[in-house]
Write a structure and sequence with these properties.
Elements (H helix, E strand, L loop, with lengths): L20 H8 L3 E5 L2 E4 L1 H20 L3 E2 L5 E2 L1 H7 L1 H4 L5 E4 L5 E4 L4 H11 L8 E10 L14 E11 L2 H21 L5 E5 L8 E8 L5 E5 L6 E3 L21 E4 L6 H5 L11 E8 L2 E8 L6 H8 L4 E3 L2 H8 L15 E5 L8 E4 L5 E6 L1 H4 L4 E3 L17 E15 L1 H5 L3 E3 L5 E3 L1 E8 H11 L1 E2 L2 E2 L10 E5 L7 H15 L4 E3 L6 H11 L3 E5 L1 H5 L2 E6 L5 E4 L3 H10 L1
Parallel strand pairs: 3-7, 15-17, 17-20, 27-28, 27-29
Antiparallel strand pairs: 1-2, 4-6, 5-6, 7-8, 8-24, 9-10, 10-21, 11-12, 11-21, 13-19, 14-15, 14-16, 18-19, 21-24, 22-23, 25-26, 29-30, 30-31
Helix pairs in contact: 1-12, 2-6, 2-12
Bound molecules: adenosine-5'-triphosphate (ATP) and magnesium ion (MG).
């Protein structure tokens, strides 16, 4: 390819909207352009990288025994009603209407479609194990599309679905996909590590996410340094807070005035001096429209994913000030669950056995002290609701650390949630009908592309691993005139590299060397071969690996040296 025949609109400055380095470099290197928030056009260089990642994914999926299909992006809502996700996933569903006002959905994922296929096509144990995959555009009405391709409205995903006759067999299919993910990310040059994950709206039994460590990642991962434990913060567990609840003697409940107290901090300060770990925080939520109180220690914070698991639904939100006032008869700052019987009460495990606690009295300006949770809030149901903190002991001992990461893939053991809901059954060896046992496996192709940039760049631009680079070599003649010896040698090398199977782009622009060097570094080609008059006079060309050091190589040896570099 010749630079002047393609489109590589590099930018000196990053557009103001690009907050993170990978988003800036995507735009500056001319890989993509934004059409609207969360919608991007892939330009030639970006598309080449995308196709390479896809090719790696296809090879590894095929190698793991999965077979490729392609499902429609447009889906009938009926199958989503059947699975029960029409409401559950409502926030992310893009809905469209046809000319007769019939509703359709733009698929955010394809469990429903594949399960309805399996319901009609898989009938016997003899047809399993089988895993289908596709690489396809997904649509999600994200609340906050941002960070370029990281959280887009339309993005490319590889999604795979396994079907098995038993849990045991499904575990083997799951392991195959898990292993394929490890290889895929490795080949893309990513240090992705698996962590235990929450199963969320997908349902199912257990799952792992593949995370790429990054300061700018939207996920937080709790892990131990011995490598024995890593979990998404949404799911992470510990042996409990660093400040344990003291064993205080039970005393009679006592109401006392707390005028002006609004927050945990207010009550911790003078004149009350009640530290957070001796307070009960009372949160009022509406789960599928019904009020529920969530109780936590004052110094703990609610983990929404754990709350969803505890509530048995992803459809919940904090109650508004008016809803709270009408339910509780008091305002935030004075809320509590003592003597309250108008809603379900879920209490965090850390409050189990706690006594000597302070909580709102459900009368504005008053609190209770000496609360003994089991005695005074007997209706409370114990649940894990809190978010773990750095430094707490992990379940196996060593302290937890927390770091940010980008989720690039997610593998789930689904079990029979979808097959039961959609009557996808098979005849077993014993001639009994049973639901298919499923797994599902997502990988963000476009997010992975950007995660590679986020983890592989320097101050001059992107550093593509060879396996996914748009071109392996940027051949840079330092003169553009066709008659010059520089150009003639460059043309010869261009043809020779091409004939040797090397993916090469020739920067044939009539630009200053400085501009060409800057751009080739910005776009991130793994190797630059510069042909200039001065070195050519000594029979040499410049060999410069991206991020490495320049050396002069004899013109005759450059093809061999390049092949060696690309093989290494
Ligand atoms: P997140 O927690 O980041 O919203 P998710 O849990 O909703 O992701 P899955 O449903 O597991 O994502 O989708 C599989 C993969 O698709 C994710 O691991 C991620 O790589 C990618 N992905 C999900 N949402 C987006 C998005 N809005 N833009 C780009 N990629 C996405
Ligand atoms: Mg996920």
């Amino acid at each position: 390819m010749r630079w002047t025949k393609t489109l590589i609109p590099t930018l000196k400055e990053a557009p103001a909207e690009a907050e993170i380095i990978s988003h800036q470099l995507l735009l500056r290197a001319g890989l993509v352009r934004k059409l609207a928030g969360g919608l991007y056009t892939f330009l030639p260089m970006g598309l080449r990288v995308l196709r390479k990642i896809e090719a790696i994914v296809r090879q590894e999926m095929d190698g793991a025994g999965a077979c490729e299909v392609l499902m429609p992006a447009l889906q009938p809502p009926e199958i989503w009603r059947q699975s029960g996700r029409y409401e559950q996933a409502a926030q992310v569903l893009f809905k469209v209407r046809d000319s007769s006002q019939r509703e359709w959905l733009l698929g955010p994922t394809h469990e429903e479609v594949i399960t309805s296929l399996a319901a009609s096509e898989i009938n016997s144990y003899r047809q399993m194990p089988v895993t289908f995959y596709q690489i396809q555009t997904k649509f999600r009405d994200e609340i906050r599309p941002r960070f370029g391709l990281m959280r887009a409205r339309e993005f490319l995903m590889k999604d795979a679905y396994s079907f098995d006759i038993s849990d045991e067999a499904a575990q083997a299919s799951y392991q195959k996909m898990y292993d394929a993910y490890v290889r895929i990310f490795g080949r893309c040059g990513l240090k992705a590590f698996p962590v235990e994950a929450d199963t969320g709206v997908m349902g199912g039994k257990f799952s792992h996410e593949f995370m790429v460590p990054a300061q700018t990642g939207e996920c937080e991962v709790a892990y131990t340094e011995d490598g024995q434990y890593a979990a998404n913060l949404e799911k992470a567990a510990s042996r409990g807070p660093l400040t344990p609840a003291p064993a205080l003697a039970e005393q009679p409940l006592e109401q006392f005035p707390t005028p002006g107290v609004r927050t945990i901090e207010d009550l911790a300060a003078a004149p009350y001096h009640t530290p957070g770990h001796l307070q009960i925080k009372t949160l009022v939520y509406l789960a599928e429209g019904k009020p529920v109180l969530l109780l936590l220690r004052g110094d703990d914070s609610l983990n929404e994913a754990k709350a969803a698991a505890a509530l048995g639904t992803g459809v919940f939100r904090p109650a508004t000030a008016e809803e709270i006032a009408s339910l509780m008869g008091a305002h935030p700052g004075s809320l509590g669950a003592v003597g309250f019987d108008k809603a379900r009460v879920l209490a965090d495990e850390q409050l189990r056995g706690a006594s000597g606690m302070t909580t709102g009295a459900n009368v504005d300006g008053f609190h209770f002290r000496h609360v003994c949770v089991s005695r005074d809030i007997p209706a409370a149901v114990w649940k894990d609701l809190r978010t773990v903190r750095e430094g707490e002991e992990s379940l196996h001992g060593p302290p937890l650390k927390i770091r940010r990461a980008i989720e690039v893939g997610h593998v789930f053991k689904l079990g029979t949630k979808y097959s039961e809901a959609m009557s996808a059954t098979f005849l077993g060896v014993d001639a009994q009908r049973r639901p298919l046992v499923m797994g599902c496996y997502g990988m963000g192709i476009t997010r992975t592309l950007q995660a590679i940039i986020e983890s592989s760049h320097d101050q001059n631009g992107i550093i593509w691993p060879i396996a996914v680079a748009p071109y392996a070599v940027c051949l840079t003649p330092l003169s553009a005139s066709a008659e010059s010896e520089v150009m003639q040698v460059s043309e010869r090398l261009y043809a020779q590299l091409g004939a040797a199977g090397v993916e090469v782009i020739m920067d044939d622009r009539d630009e200053r060397p400085g501009v060409k060097f800057k751009d080739s570094e910005l776009v991130g080609f793994p190797l630059r071969i510069a042909v200039g008059e001065k070195s050519l006079n000594q029979g040499m060309v410049e060999f410069c690996p991206r991020g490495g050091t320049k050396e002069l190589v004899p013109v005759d040896a450059i093809i061999g040296r390049t092949l060696e570099f690309l093989r290494a």
